[in-house]
Specification:
Helix content: 25-40%
Radius of gyration: 24 Å
Strand order of the largest sheet: 1-2-3
Oligomer: single chain
CATH superfamily of one domain: YefM-like domain
């Protein structure tokens, strides 16, 4: 039973190849069991986008397209300044 790319588990099993094709085309397919959404089938490309390591500020600086720019991004070894609270 299909309704807005929401499939009951038993129907998803019977039409798995078709659902994989939909996922490859960029559609997400929700799978339900007893009326509750329990899984989502997505493409490998989308999965990779969702699980890729997020780069931080340091990675951004290190990959910047400025080969002649000499950045000193090491942490200072000096004692921190005194703060009165």
């Amino acid at each position: 039973m299909i309704h807005e790319n929401k499939w009951q588990l038993q129907d998803a099993k019977a039409h798995f190849s078709h659902l994989v094709t939909l996922a490859e085309k960029g559609e997400s397919v929700k799978i339900t069991r007893r009326g509750c959404e329990v899984a989502v089938l997505i493409s490998k490309k989308r999965y990779d986008q969702l699980t890729q390591k997020k780069s931080g500020l340091l990675d951004c600086f290190l990959s910047a397209p400025f080969p002649d720019l000499d950045l000193d991004i090491s942490r200072s070894k000096e004692a921190p300044r005194e703060v009165e609270l």
